[in-house]
Amino acid sequence: MSTQAKSAAPVALCDATLDQLPATVARPTYDRAALTPGIVHVGLGNFHRAHQAWYLHRLMQDGRAQDWAIIGAGVRAGDAVMREKLLAQDCLTTLIELDPKNSAVEVTGAMIDFLPVEEDNRALIACMTDPRIRIVALTVTEGGYFIAPGDGGLDFDHPDIRHDIARPEAPSTVFGAIVAGLKARRNAGSGPFTVQSCDNLQGNGDITRSVVVSLARATDPDLADWIDKQGAFPNSMVDCIVPATGAKELEMVRGFGIGDAVPVTHENFRQWVIEDRFCAGRPDWDLVGATFTNDVHAYEAMKIRILNAGHQVLANAGELLSIDTIAGCMADADIAAFFDKVQRTEIAPQVGAVPGMMPLSYVDLITDRFANPRIHDTTRRVAFDGLSRHRGFVHPIIRDALAAGQSITGLALVEALWARMCAGTREDGSIIVENDPAWARLQSAALAAKADPDVWLKGTEAYGAFAADPRFRDAFVNSLSQVWQNGTRATLQSYVA
């Protein structure tokens, strides 16, 4: 650990200035000019650079994986901004680890290029045909997989998917680009690459396989069969709390003497559990702390249910009470007591143990991590895309608890708080700015649900069959009525009492 350095003129980050950085800043010890690519990663946000790219950087620091460097890519227009900023600093990233007692700073260099961001993904497809590329990895968020409501299959009605089926040679989605890249590989006889999801989805590899194979089958059934048989889509679980970068983080990196336009702050905890199923080789991430296992499901269930669902327990209550950060929520006695009771009595009973960790011990670990006051993780970021996050993280717990005949009172209150938040105002009267791709639909249902809660349960298409289960419906209706009539804080106190 190091104390924050003082510097009147931060050093502009790039390869040529690495030796000019303050002595307290760790930096690559490997020859970046000698690195060759092995991975294309789509979605170069903060999480990837603090997590997957860091594991690869650590291998490179040990003199390994020099032929596995990352080429960055994006499929959204906004990704071009990140590309411009990263290329200006030779794709280097400053990571600032925020321990409650101190900070450590490190510059990482596992990424060597960023492809042009194009509507037809021409450069991305061309790069994926390079036989040196053996893994195409994704962090495109939980809502970026084009999953149809209800059956969980590919959403063939989505306009982007319809576009990719009509024009497979010029796709607009990352999955269309992957199909095009795999088709070119098959035609060239170079074999497939592994497609590796690094998003917070339970069974993320299985979901990715389903999306890619289904999309391929819509235009080329033989290609779909080849991908399904020859390709690889390992499941994985990823974990590290990585806030968004804003003015505070930019000021922090300058305080360390570094001029980085896109620094990343993160907690002092990382975990990566990976199914060892790759069709074209892989880096030895396990040598720097990752876990390879044939049973990713148990790890991801623990993490997604306790951590990711736990975030939703906190974020909507925090938004309604005008608390800006997750650490601030944990410092609020009523929200913290609500979080603790829901976790211990309703979530943890639906989680199995993993080697070395029992569910209640993991609750304790998550409680400490969420309470870290140095991690400025906003309630707004955590609450974003609530429709995808509640469906993916919270609702499976409710279904399992209902099937087991166990309590869902607190989880029903979590859903009621989400519905109240989507009405678009905090309890102090301030406006909650649009915070979901489906915000207009959610807000309309949330406002109508004040008088008729069934509008929320039926109109959001979020709950499926258990919306009609009287145990859940009655608990939800009661909670939402209390929140509207008595306010969030009084309702939380009533539940805890």
Automatic annotation (TrEMBL):
Q: Give the species this sequence originates from.
A: Sulfitobacter aestuariivivens
Q: Which residues form the Mannitol dehydrogenase C-terminal domain?
A: 295-484
Domain Mannitol dehydrogenase N-terminal, which positions?
38-286
Enumerate the SUPFAM superfamilies for this protein.
6-phosphogluconate dehydrogenase C-terminal domain-like, NAD(P)-binding Rossmann-fold domains
Q: Which InterPro entries match?
A: 6-PGluconate_DH-like_C_sf, 6PGD_dom2, Mannitol_DH, Mannitol_DH/Oxidoreductase, Mannitol_DH_C, Mannitol_DH_N, NAD(P)-bd_dom_sf
Q: Which UniProt keywords apply?
A: Oxidoreductase
Q: Which Pfam families match?
A: Mannitol_dh, Mannitol_dh_C
Superkingdom as given in the UniProt entry: Bacteria
Which protein are we looking at? Answer: Mannitol dehydrogenase family protein
